[in-house]
Amino acid sequence: MNTTEHPTPPWLANGDLATPDAARRPSTSAWPPLRAAWLVVICVAWLALTAWIRPLTAPDEGRYVGVALSMLHSGDWLVPRLDGLPFFHKPPLFYWISAAAMAVAGPHEGVARVPSILGAGLAVGALLLFLRRWSTPALAQLSTLVLVTTPFFFLGAQFANLDMLVAGCIAATVLLGTGAILARERDEPWRTLLAGAFLAAAMGLLAKGLIGLLLPGLVLVLWCLTTRRPAALRLALWLPGWVVLLAVAGPWFVAMQLKFPDFFDYFVITQHFRRFASSGFNNQQAVWFYLPVLAVLTMPWFAWMLVPRPKLIAPGPAQRRLSDIDWLMIIWFAVVVVFFSLPRSKLIGYVLPALAPMAYLIARRMSAGRPDGQLRSRVHATAAVAAGLCIVLVGAIAAMATPPGARLRLPASLHVAPGDQVLMLDSYFYEIPFYWRFRQPVRIASDWQAANINAHDDWRKEITDAARFDPARAAHTLVGRAQLAKALCQPRTTWLIGPSNASIANPWITDVPLVAFNERVAAWRFAGSAQRDPDCLGPKGGPAP
């Protein structure tokens, strides 16, 4: 194995828990695989502990869970659909897992979040097993403890979007790939590890697109160059690995391109390259945005990075060197943070893949020159505070961030029958189809002029982007202002859902029975009649009740 040593920066002073020599030497401590498996199970159970408490948030959780539920109800497991229209913002892995979980256990919030919980579990298991093999059991357990009790990671594991799922795939790709390189240098079995890395990369592609392959590839290339392993780069060309990757990830992309000729331009060019380079998307932030985000959301563990190393114990020559594992974690963390800092559009969850290496770096810093007894007591205290903070934050979000659509409930005497029509007015409430148990797409009435849609990266743009892949269905789903009266005045019962202040722009709504209401959203009911005139108009210029 390459044993090149590098100077250690002062913020990563090594301690007794994991010296560079220990980090380069495979652990020989007795630590049965069954114990590691149980630790992973316990960690996953902890990460899922409060997943059922909080309602789905809007728009992200409502959107992605809604697509998964639509997949389950329609029986079309190939094409992700948003309100019945092909939705290609992201690949289908999240939807497949969430829909399968809901098929088994029903459409509940905790069940819908299973993909994120599994992604977090994959990251935890990969980190624990990698460090158990290539560092020390003590550092493996401490790094894992830091990771699973970090509030950012805990909340990400219970948030139903694609970020934690791809973070787990990236972690598995990086650590399996590194393990294959290290095992090959020691003439140990390495092909299974490398095949696993390609499989994890394929899952990353199906989870969130090209970053599932690009980011771990970039980490491994830079690590090989930094630790003077250029020959190991040849493993990137390992043919059996590419067979695995293409066999797992390739069929869905090929099928979508064959079915929808504009798929490649939209999914690859628009959703990857244009979104990365353009300033026309939401959540524009400064280049340094993720630094305070990571510092604050990883408290109280991050505070240990600011604590000076004890001066009573001076590091020896071996402790002044960075190990190859140290370099891997530093490069991994830096690649993720720098990569997502470059585009103007930034979402907090994008840097979830940086948390696994950050947990390792914090664990290494904590162990710097501290006796085992002192370290153990401080670890226990910090972990207790961190775990308590995780629970408190979930409760606070549940109390303060519940979207209005999740709180809108029909009276017990009313329900939406299978043949009823549902129409949303001037908005699309992603979470309502989940909570009202809709099995069919709703119709959406709004101003669908291209100039208004292209000016904003919002629900209108998502719906119209999806509509371009199925114009025939979109012609029925999207209702223009001129067609609103005809759409509402149907022989069947119609439910109208819109902003609670919709009567300002639509005064005719005041003549319609209001059946549910809160400060943001309201629902009205048009009772169907076989004699209803499809061109009926109310006295205020709108549909009659």
Radius of gyration: 26 Å
Task: Describe the largest sheet.
Answer: 6 strands, mixed
Strand order of the largest sheet: 7-6-5-8-10-9
Quick one: how many beta strands?
10
Based on helices, strands and strand pairing, what is the structural class? Answer: alpha/beta
Give the terminus-to-terminus CA distance. Answer: 79 Å
Low-confidence stretches: 1-24, 530-535
What is the helix content? 40-55%
How many helical elements? Answer: 23
Which overall shape is indicated by the principal axes computed on the Cα atoms? globular
Mean pLDDT: 85
Relative strand content: 5-15%
Explained architecture:
The protein is α/β, with parallel strands linked by helices. Helix content is 52%, strand content 6%. The protein is built from 23 helices and ten strands. Strands 7-6-5-8-10-9 form a six-stranded mixed β-sheet. Helix 9 packs antiparallel against helix 10. The chain is globular, with a radius of gyration of 26 Å. The relative contact order is 0.13.
